[in-house]
Design goal:
Radius of gyration of chain A: 19 Å
Number of strands of chain B: 2
Number of helices of chain A: 2
Shape of chain B: globular
Largest sheet of chain B: 2 strands, antiparallel
Largest interface: A-B, 12 and 18 residues
Oligomer: heterodimer
Largest sheet of chain A: none
Distance between the termini of chain A: 22 Å
Distance between the termini of chain B: 55 Å
Number of strands of chain A: 0
Structural class of chain A: mainly alpha
Helix content of chain A: over 70%
């Protein structure tokens, strides 16, 4: 009986932790939005230069997204592995 | 209902017994890797057959792929970077076709296993380290010591540079792996909603086309992500190789 309560509480903490880790993904979304928003505002001011910087925008987005992905991995590990 | 991670299960097809506790087997992962390599070899050999000055459609397709990767490599690592063209081209095609084959319903996604993507990332970082030391010797370590930094700041900057270099294989492999994993899990979860709504019956069943539309849109988005992640993997490979070619800051 005692152990059942403890495992149930442990599961609850697991889900709480996974939910908290998912907040980080929202922050990464802000970062990716910043990159593409600034890229677009720059590209609209100087459309001729936008093609050359397109790849750089995607690299920046991939790097920012990678940090959000780390949060997702933490959440997935909590849900399915730990 | 089946768990959303069930699709990533590795099943043995032909077992060759065990070494110690580790099973040695031909698995569905290995089968799909062979399928991916077979597809690449097949398309590329069709593209390079009957090569003419005015290309046919297959040859134009192959040339487009070649030019795409070659421009990427030239932009990031300069002309001498073309030494690594075979490596980057193979990695790009393997990851791209692996991701796209995974989008076929019911197919296994080889890049959704971190050991596969980590092995690919270690090939890249191993090439950078070995080539860097072979070409520049100890000068390659200048990569970690940027010039023009105040003396008191130098130890910290060097430490940060070392940590950032060591985290490269992890972030390179984790980005690809987690994108594929998350995309396929999200697809499976949304597809599960259709089944649950239909099983609930009545008014809930009327709503079941909504997750179907969402799944449909997400398949399109995941195909875009599959191509984008292959591109990102290849671009970052080019940038890291640039460090091996030109280690000075």
């Amino acid at each position: 009986m005692e152990t059942e309560v403890i495992t149930a509480a442990g599961d609850a903490y697991k889900y709480l932790g996974a939910g908290l880790a998912a907040i980080g993904m929202g922050l990464a979304a802000i970062g990716v939005g910043n990159i593409f928003g600034n890229f677009l505002s720059g590209a609209l001011r100087n459309p001729s230069a936008s093609d050359g910087q397109f790849a750089r925008a995607f690299i920046g987005a991939a790097l920012a997204e990678g940090l959000g992905i780390f949060c997702l991995v933490v959440a997935l590990v909590l849900l399915f592995v730990a | 209902m089946a768990s959303p991670v069930e699709q990533f299960e590795i099943k043995e097809i032909v077992s060759f017994g065990t070494i110690g506790d580790a099973p040695i087997a031909f698995t569905n992962s290995g089968l799909y890797m062979l399928v991916v390599v077979g597809l690449i070899l097949g398309v590329m050999s069709v593209a390079t057959r009957n090569v003419a000055l005015i290309p046919n459609r297959w040859q134009a397709f192959g040339e487009t792929l070649y030019e795409f990767v070659a421009n990427m490599l030239r932009d990031a690592a300069g002309k001498e970077g073309m030494t690594f063209f075979p490596l980057v081209f193979s990695l790009f095609l393997f990851v791209l076709v692996g991701n796209l084959v995974g989008m076929v319903p019911g197919a296994f996604t080889i890049t959704s296993h971190i050991i596969v993507t980590f092995a690919l990332a270690m090939v890249v970082i191993g090439t950078v380290v070995i080539y860097g030391f072979a070409k520049h010797g100890t000068h390659f370590l200048g990569l970690f010591v940027p010039s023009g930094v105040p003396g008191w700041l130098l130890p910290f900057i060097t430490l940060i540079e070392v940590i950032s270099f060591l985290s490269r294989p992890i972030s390179l492999s984790l980005r690809l792996f987690a994108n594929m994993l998350a995309g396929h899990i999200a697809l499976k979860v949304f597809a599960g909603f259709i089944v649950s709504l239909l099983a609930a019956g009545g008014a809930a069943a009327v709503l079941s086309p909504l997750p179907l539309l969402m799944t449909f849109a997400m398949v399109g988005f995941e195909i875009f992500v599959a191509a984008l992640q292959a591109y990102v993997f290849a671009v970052l490979t080019c940038i890291y190789l640039n460090d091996a070619l030109h280690p000075g800051h």
